[in-house]
Structure formats: structure tokens, C-alpha cells
Amino acid sequence: MQQDDVKAYLKANPEFFEQNASFLAEIRLPSPHGSGAISLAERQQLAQRDKIDALKTNFAELVLNARDNDAITNKIQTLNIALHKAKNFDAIEQLISDLLPEIFDLSETCMRIWASPLDSRNRGNLVFSDVSEQTKTWVAALIQPYCGKLPEIATDDWFLEPAASIALIPLRDAHNVGFLALASDNTSRFYAEMGTDFLSKIGEILSAALSRHLDLS
């Protein structure tokens, strides 16, 4: 008799378990936790307990992720409100260099814009420093924000201190107008496989705020 034959018989005769309860209690199986042999009933109880523990762990992770997402959403809202209140380009640039690292626990930020400012007096701002065509092409090719180690296109003037990991967010209107790079001294803060929805939202909000001060024609 093969295993399939036994399975077929038990499925066709469910009363077997009731009629042979004492026999089933005598069956000993290896414990899944490596603690010797246990009865079939104990094996089933352990299996159910393990499933319940796994569900509890998954639920705890969902709750933690929900709390983290709420916290990030609130931080983005804080940034959004501050950008709406910014009265000029210098105020926006100061928010990016000072407020953003504070609320998102970053070491530094770097913003570069190659669209021309509407107010020529802003042309001397560091964010309008010359950017190579290679960098512009690299940013234009991004489908989503880049996360990971400092890319080869980075130049020495991006950050004051070496970044362990960065997120680079394209700034776009109808076309690419620049980028925002977020630096962290934690190597695992920004990594290639991480989700980028919140980073994309920051890029959209900042791009909209900057559009009021850039020549996008």
C-alpha cells in the first residue's frame, strides 16, 4: 500500500479517527522543536501554536509599519506646510538645508538646479552651481528616486562630510530641473531595495514649490 492509498482511504472514511481514537493517541511523531517524540495530538497543538505565534509576529510588524508610515506622513506634512509658507527662493533653500535634515534625521542635503531662476539675484546661490551633462542624463534616466551608496556622478561639493548612504530625488516639472540628495551617516538608511513612495512625494512637493521661482519655459 502506498501513501496515496492511505490518504485516499482516510479522506473517504473520516469516521476512522473517531473509531480509533485510542490508536491515534499511541502514535508518536518527532517534535518539530527537536525535543523527542510527541503524540499526534501534541504535534497538531504545536503546529497551531506556531501558526498563532507567526500571526502575532506579522500583526506586530504591520502595527509597527503603520506607526512608522504615520510618522513619516506627519513629517512630510510639516515640510509641505513650511514650503507653502516660504515667501521666496532663499526661504525654500534654507528649509531644505536646515529643516529637512532636522525632521528626517539626515546628516546633510544637497540640491542642484539647472533651470534658471526667475530672480537673477538668486543665480549666485550654490544650488545653481554648474552640473555636468553626464549628471543631468543620469538623473533624467531615473524612474524613481535612487537609494544606495554615493553614485559615481557625485562631485566633491555635494556634501561637507562623506555620506554612508544617500537618496537622490529627481526634481521635475514638465522636464527635469534638478535633484535633491539626502545624505545619511548610516549605511543601511538608504538601500537599493527600499520603497521610494515617500521620497517621490517629497520630490513632487518640492518641485511644485520651486516652480514658482524658476523659468520653466
Top-tier CATH class of the domain at 86-215: Alpha Beta
Number of strands: 8
Element-level helix/strand string: HHHEEHHEEHEEEHE
Task: Examine the secondary-structure arrangement and name the CATH architecture of the domain at 86-215.
Answer: 2-Layer Sandwich
- As a percent range, the share of helical residues equals 40-55%
In the predicted model, the low-confidence regions spanning at least 5 consecutive residues are none
Mean model confidence by pLDDT: 85
- According to CATH, what is the topology of the domain at 86-215? Beta-Lactamase
Q: Quickly count the helices.
A: 7
Q: Going across the major beta sheet, what is the strand order?
A: 3-7-6-5
Q: Helices and strands in order, then pairings?
A:
Blueprint: H1 3-12, H2 15-19, H3 21-26, E1 28-30, E2 37-39, H4 40-85, H5 89-104, E3 108-113, E4 116-117, H6 133-140, E5 146-148, E6 165-172, E7 176-184, H7 197-210, E8 214-215
Antiparallel strand pairs: 1-2, 3-7, 4-8, 5-6, 6-7
Helix pairs in contact: 4-5, 4-7
Descriptive account of the structure:
- The protein is an alpha+beta fold.
- The chain has a domain at 86-215: 2-Layer Sandwich (Beta-Lactamase), CATH 3.30.450.40.
- It contains seven helices and eight strands; from the N terminus they run H-H-H-E-E-H-H-E-E-H-E-E-E-H-E.
- It has a four-stranded antiparallel β-sheet with strand order 3-7-6-5, sandwiched between helices. Strands 1-2 form a two-stranded antiparallel ribbon.
- The chain is elongated.
What would you say about this model in short?
With 217 residues, this protein is α+β, with helices and mostly antiparallel strands.
